[in-house]
Amino acid sequence: MADKDERGRAGEARAARHLEQAGWRVLARNWRCVHGEIDIVAERGDEIAIVEVKTRRTRRFGHPLEAITPRKLTRLRYLAIAWVMANPERAWGRQVALHAVAITGDDPDTGALEHLEHLQ
Question: Which of 10, 11, 47, 8 is nearest to 27 (CA)?
Fold first, then answer.
């Protein structure tokens, strides 16, 4: 379990670096509320991104993004609303979008990274 947790933290750190290199400013990592946790909240221009990060060693059980089911997307939408309600001054007049970052490989720092924006 500790290895899985460490892998997840390393994946989130890599995703945050990737976002920053792509011009995003990370506002929060592991933001929590009673409804759950958002891995990363970032901003760029007039957009706020609620980012789900999935890190896997292999694709043996499917692509990491396959873990973002319709149920998970619904939960992410509720979390996005909760974040906006907790941060109205930051969210005012801005688009809030769901993003996902998938990292696959033995080492999260060097594995394949995919960033999907504007999940439906």
Answer: 47
Cα–Cα dist 118/120, whole Å: 6
29-63 burial, b at 16+ Cβ within 10 Å, e below that, comes to bebeeeeeebbbbbbeeeebbbbbbbbbbeeeeee
Residue 54 token pair: 């999935």
Residue entry with tokens 């929060």: 28
Q: Which residue has the tokens 């939408």?
A: 77
pTM: 0.94
pLDDT in tens, the chain (120 residues): 458 788 889 999 999 999 999 999 999 999 999 999 999 999 999 999 999 999 998 888 889 999 999 999 999 999 999 999 999 999 999 999 999 999 999 999 999 999 999 998
Sheet containing 36-44: give its strands across: 25-33, 36-44, 47-56, 95-104, 112-116
In order of their start, the domains of the chain are 2-116 (3.40.1350.10)
